[in-house]
Amino acid sequence: MQRWPVLLFLAWVCFLFFAGIGLFMSGFLLTRIELASSSSCSDPFVPPSWERQSLPPGSCWAPQRFSKAVLVIIDALRFEFAHFNPAKASPRPYENKLSFLHHLVTSQPRHARLYRFRADPPTATMQRIKGLTTGSLPTFIDVGSNFATYAIQEDNLLAQLVQNGRRVIFMGDDTWEGLFPKKFFRSYFFPSFNVKDLHTVDDGILQHLYPTVDSGEWDMLIAHFLGVDHCGHKHGPDHAEMAKKLTQMNEMLRSLVEHLGNDTLLLVAGDHGMTETGDHGGDSEKEVNAALFVYSKTPLFGTGPPEEPEAVAQVNLVPTVALLLGVPIPYSNIGEVMAELFSGDGDAVSAALQQLLVYHINAKQVDRFLHSYSLVAQDLPAEQLQHLQDLFSGAVEEHAQLLAQVQRPTLVPPELESRLGSLIGRFQLYLREARAVCTQSWARFHPLRMVGGCTLIAASCLLCYMASELATASDSFYRSCLLYPLLWGLVVAVLLGLAHAFTQNGLDLLLVSSWAAAASQLGFFWHWWGWHPKRARLVGSQPPLANVSLRQRLQAWLQLAFPMGILLFRCGAMFSDSFVVAEARVAPFLLASLVMLLIGKLHWDGRLTVPEGPKQQLLGFSSYRREIWYLLCLVAMLLVCVRLSSFFHQCREEIPQCRPSLFLSPLASLRNTRAKNLFYLLCVALLAGLVCAVRSWLRHYGNLNSSDPLVLFVRWGFPLVVLCIACYWAVASSADDSLGKLQELVQVAVVAFPWAVYGLASVGLLLLLCNPMTVFAKDTRESAGSIVTPYLGVPSSEVDFLHVIPQIYKRMQESQKSCLERGGCRATVAAYGLGSVYSAALVIALTLLGFLLMLLHSERLSLAFLLLFLEAFVLLHIHTRARGLAGDAEPFSVPWYAVISWLLAASQFFYSTGHQPIFPAIHWNAAFVGFHLDHSTNLLPAVLVGANTFASHILFAVSCPLLLLWPFVCEMPSSQRKKPKKEPREELQEVEEHMMEMRLRESPEKFSIALLQLGLKYLFVLGTQLLACVCAAMILRRHLMVWKVFAPKFLFESLGFVVSSICLLLGISLVMRVDCAVSTWFSQLQLR
Amino acid sequence: MKEAEIRRLLAANLLCVFTIVLTAVVPAFFWDGFTILGTHLAWLCICSVCVSTLNIILHLVLKPNLTPKRSSFAHKISRFLKCCIYFFMSCILFHAIIVLYGAPLIESVTETFLFAVLLSTFTTLQCLCMLGPNIQAWIRVFSKNGAMSIWESSLQITTICSILGAWFGAFPIPLDWDRPWQVWPISCSLGATFGYMAGLIIAPLWIHWNRKQLTYKSR
C-alpha cells in the first residue's frame, strides 16, 4: 500500500488551498496604515493673532483648564446602566443603580453632565482602549489579535502626557500593560481574562484608589473596572449580580468624588455596551451605546443640561481631554472636541471665542493628519480630500477675519455672536466630514491579491475534482500528477528566493508560497494534459466509440447533477446576507432534501422494489424489499435528529425575535436547584450511555476481546474519563457562595479534573498510535495443550470433580464441532475483530475526541454531541444501505452524495453546538477549562477556543474515512453475532464469506487510491464552499453587511477549512497507521 | 386516438388551472376583504375544496382508467372509505415531514396543517382519483418507465412539480425583504400552487412533444 504518496498528495492540495486563503486574506483584511509621527508642544497651532503670552505655564496649544484628571473606565457600562429614571416604578436589576450620578446632575447642573458615548465597532475592549487613547479608528483585523495585545505604536494621549512630564497612574485591567508598556508612573495591574471572576480586578482597584488619590502624586489617574463586563459575560445584564456590581460602582463614585480636589476633572466612561445576553464585539445599538459622565468641582458648563442626553463619539474624548489638560492632541486623532466643556464661566462671547480657539486647533491638527496620511497612502479619495481642504481653508480664513474684527471693537455683541456661531458650525462640519471620510474608506482592499487568491482556490477545487476522477495507483500517476508539479513549485520558489536575495528586497513569504502554489498547479494541469490517456484514445479515430462515451459522459453528468445541485444551492446561499444569517436553518434543510432525494431517486430507478414483479397483491407493500423499512426508519431517525438539533442554536443580532437556546448557558447559571440536578443527571447519563454504546459496538464486532493496553483503556479508561467529566461538571456547576470553607478545595478541583481528562485522553490517543490493533487472535494450531487445567493433589472432594468434568466435556464438544465444520481438525487462527480493525481505531479516537470537546462546551451541550454521534451513525447506515440497494459496481469509491451529506451535517452541527460565525458568539469560556488564572502564552487558549468553535468540523473530518470503511464493516449479517472472522492461513482458503474490512487489505493499491479519492472529494466539497464564501466577500466588499456578515463568515469558513483539512489528514493517517500495524501483525503470524 | 386523448387531457388540465385562478378571484366578490395574502387560511381551504371537487368530477366524467369489472355497491363504499383514510393519513404524513423540514412545531399548527392538506390535494388526491387506494399501482407509477397511459404521465409530472414548487417556495422565507408573502406558509403554498399549475400545463405539452418516444405497454 502506498501510504506516503497519498498523504503527500493530500498535504500538497491542502497547501494549495492555504496559499489561496492567505493571498486572499492579505488583500481583503487590511489594517489601516499607522503613522509614526507624533505631535509636539512646539507645533505652530496657536493662531498667531491670539496672544501667545496668555498661555499659562505648562500648557501646550491651548490654556490648561485642569491640572489633574481622573478617568474611571467601567467596562461595558451601557447607557441604560448609568441613566437614572426616578419615575420608573419597578426598575430591572441594571436600572437606576447609579443614583449618585443623577444626584450630581440634578444638584449641580453646571458641574456634571451625562452623555451617550457612541463607541465605534468593533466593540472589543482592546480596540476601544486604542480608540479612547489614539483618537482613531481601529480596523477589522485588529479583532483577531484580542488575545495578544501589543503595544500601541501610534501617537496617543498617554504618550503625550508622559512626553509633557505628567505622571500617569493606572490601576485595573492588565490589557493596558501590553498596550502601553513602561508609560505609567505607577501601575496596579490585575488579570483581566478570566471572565468568571467578578471581583479580583475591582477589589484590587478599590484597595489602591483612595490612598493614591489622597497622596496627590499624579496628574492623570486611570482606573479600569472590569466587574460589570465580567458579570455581563457570566450572568447577563438582567441578573441580581449586576445590581450588586452597579451598586458597588455607585458607592465607589460617591467616595471618589469626596476625595477629589477643585482642580480635578472626573470622567466616568464605558468603553462599550453589551447585548441582552451580556456579549459585545459587534455593532448593534446596545453594544455601541455606552455612557460618559463628566464632573468637576468647578463649574464646567455655561448652561444647564439639555433634556435628552447628547450623543458624542468615543474618539471625541481624546482631543477634549488633551486640550483640557494642556497637552497636544495626538497626531492621528480624528475626533472632535466637546466644545461646551471649554466655555468656562464667562459671558457668551468669550465662551464662543474660547470654543472657536479649540475648534481651530482641532481642525488644524486633523488637517495636518489628513495631509500626511494622504502622502503615505492613497486610499482616501482625492476629490473628497480636496473638498475637505476647501472647507478647512474657508473656515480658517473667516476665522482670521473675525479675529481681526474682534481686535477692533466694531461689532456689536448680537451680530458677533451669530457670526461666531456660524463659524463654529463650519468647523464642526469640517471635522465631522473628515471623520466620515476616514470611517468610510478605512476598509481598503487589494483587488489584485483578492482575485489571485480566488483564482488559486478555484483552480485547487478543479484540481481536486480532476484528480479524484482519474486517480490510479500507477507510478506514472504519482509521477506526473504529484512529483512534477511539486518540482515546478519548488523551482519557482527557489527562483523567487534567489531573485529576492539578489535584489535585497524583503522576502514576502506569502507571495513566494502563492507563486509556488500557482506554478505547481500549472505543472499539474500541464502534465495532466500530456498524461491523460483517454484523450489520446479519443483522438485516435473511432467516432462511434467517441459518441458512446459522450452519451455515457452525459449520463454520468446527470448522475452528478443531483448531489452537485444541492452543493450549488449551498454555495449560492453564501451570496445573500439573509441566507448567511439563516444558515443554521439552511444546512439542515438541504441535508434533509439531499437524503429525501436520494431515497426518491432509488425509488425512481426501481431499486427499492423486488425486480421480479408483484407476486402477492394482498398487501400493497409486498413488492418492496424488506430492507426498505429499515432504510425508511433510518431516514425518519435522521430527520428527527436534524430537527432536534435545532434546539441548540445560538442567536444572531440580525434576528431580533430569536431567543438563544436554554441549553447554551452553563448549569451554574440555573437558579432552580431541582432543574439543575435533573439536567446534571441527564448529562452524566448521556455520557455513560455513549460509553456503553461504543463498548457494545466494539464488543459486537469482537474488538473488545484482546488484552492489549488499548482495549484495557477502552474497558477501564473510558468510564474513568466519564467520571472525571462528571466530577468537573458537578464542581463547576455548584453555586459560588454555597460551599464556604470548601472554596479552596473547589478551586483545586476545577483545575484538576479537566487536567485528568486531558491526561487520560492523551494517554488513550498515544496508546492508539502505538498499537492500534484491537484484535484478539486465538491460535489453535498448537492444540496440544493440557485438556484440563492443572490441579494440585488428588481430587478430594466432589467440588473438584464438578470443576473438572464439565471442562473435559466442553473440550470434547468443541473439538468435535470444529472437526465437523471443517471436515478435519486443521489448524486455524481465529482473529476476533480483525474485520473491523480500521473502524474500531477510528471509533475509539472519535470517542476520545468527543469527550475532550464535550469538556470544552457547557454541560448541556453534551445532548447536542450525542445527537451528532447518532446522526453520523444513521448517515453511515443510510449510506451503506443505499449503496447496497443501488448495487454499485465500485465498492471502493465513495459516492458524492455521501461526502456532501457528511459536510452538510458538519456545518449543521457547527450551529447546533451553539456557535455562529460572528465574534460575540465565540465561547471564550472554553479557554478556562482547566486553567484558573491567566494564561502565560496565547497558543493554548487559542487552541482550546478553536477546538470548541470547530468541534463538529473536527469530529466529522476525522471520521471521514468511515464513509469508505462502513459498507465493509456492515457486510456481516446481523444474525451472526460475534462470529469471529476466520483468517485462513495461506494453505486454507475456504472461508471467504465475511471478509469485511480485510477486503480492503486484499487490494492495497485500490485501498490507498480509495483513501486518496475520498480525501480529494472531501477537500473539493469543502473548497467549493470556501470558494463561494471568498467570492461573496470579494464581490460584495462594498455591501452594507460586509463587516457584519460576510467578512466574519469568510474568516470562520476559512479557519474551518484549515481545521477540517488538517483533521482529515490526521484521520487518514490514523487509518494508514492501523494498516501498518495490521501488516506487521500478519507478518508476525506467518513467522510463528 | 392519442391526439384526441392528449386534447382531452389538455382541456381537463386547463379547467383545473382555471379553477385555481377562480378561487383566487371569485371569493373577493362575495366576501369583502378577501385576498390570498390577507386571508390566506380561507384561501387554502377554498382552493383545496375546489380542486378536490373538480378532480373528483373530472374523474367521474372522463374515467381515464377503464376498469372493466363491475363492482358491487359495498365494494365501492369500502373503496371510498379507504380513500378517505388514505387522504387523511397523507395529510398527517405531509404535516410531519414539513415539521421535520423546519416548520414551527407548536405555533401556527393550523397553517402548517392546511398547507399539508393543500399538498395532499395536489398529490395524493390525484393519485387516489386516478389509481384508487392501491399502493401497488402508486409505486409502479412513480418509478422509471412506470406510467401506462398519458393520464399517468400527467400524474407523475404534476405531482413532482407540486412538490418541487413547495420546496422552492421555502427559499424566500429567510430573505429580509419584509414582504407579506414571506410569512409561513404563504410562500410555500403559493409555490406548491404555481408548481401544480405549471405541471398541469407542462404535462400535455411534454406528452405531445414526446409522443413518439412514449410507448405505453399494457399490463
Please supply descriptive tags for the structure shown above.
heterodimer, A: 1088 residues, mainly alpha, 8-stranded mixed β-sheet, 3-stranded antiparallel β-sheet, 59% helix, B: mainly alpha, 0% strand
Largest sheet: number of strands, sense, barrel closure of chain B: none
> Largest contact between protein chains?
A-B, 29 and 18 residues
- Rg calc of chain B: 18 Å
What letter string, H or E per element, gives the SSE order of chain B?
HHHHHHHHH
Q: Helicity of chain A, in percent? A: 55-70%
Strand order of the largest sheet of chain A: 4-3-5-1-6-7-2-8
Q: Span from first to last CA of chain A? A: 24 Å
Going by helix content, strand content and strand pairing, the class of chain A is mainly alpha
Describe the structure.
The complex is a heterodimer of chains A (1088) and B (219). Chain A is mainly alpha-helical and 1088 residues long. Chain A has an eight-stranded mixed β-sheet with strand order 4-3-5-1-6-7-2-8, with helices on both faces. In chain A, strands 9-10-11 form a three-stranded antiparallel β-sheet, with no helix packed on it. In chain A, helix 6 (175-179) links the parallel strand 3 and strand 4. The relative contact order of chain A is 0.10. Residues 142-149, 537-546, 612-622, 782-795 and 973-992 of chain A have low confidence and may be disordered. The mean pLDDT of chain B is 87. Chain B has 219 residues and is mainly alpha-helical. Chain B is built from nine helices and no strands. Chain B is globular. Chains A and B meet through helix 20, helix 21 and helix 22 of A and helix 4 and helix 7 of B.
List the helices and strands and how they pair.
The complex is a heterodimer of chains A (1088) and B (219).
Chain A lengths: L3 H25 L39 E7 L4 H4 L16 H9 L4 E7 L6 H10 L22 H7 L4 E6 L1 H5 L6 E5 L9 H16 L4 E6 L1 H9 L4 H20 L4 E6 L15 H4 E8 L14 E3 L3 H9 L22 H29 L5 H26 L5 H29 L5 H24 L4 H29 L5 H23 L1 H7 L3 H31 L3 H5 L1 H22 L22 H18 L28 H28 L8 H25 L9 H28 L5 E4 L18 H25 L6 E4 L4 H20 L5 H25 L9 H17 L26 H11 L1 H8 L3 H8 L11 E3 L14 H5 L1 H32 L6 H46 L1
Parallel strand pairs in A: 1-5, 1-6, 2-8, 3-4, 3-5
Antiparallel strand pairs in A: 2-7, 6-7, 9-10, 10-11
Helix pairs in contact in A: 1-15, 1-17, 1-34, 1-35, 7-9, 8-9, 12-13, 12-14, 13-14, 15-17, 15-34, 16-17, 19-21, 19-34, 21-22, 21-29, 22-28, 23-24, 23-27, 24-25, 24-27, 25-27, 27-35, 28-29, 28-32, 29-31, 29-34, 31-35, 34-35
Chain B lengths: L1 H24 L1 H4 L9 H23 L10 H28 L8 H14 L1 H8 L3 H7 L8 H20 L16 H24 L10
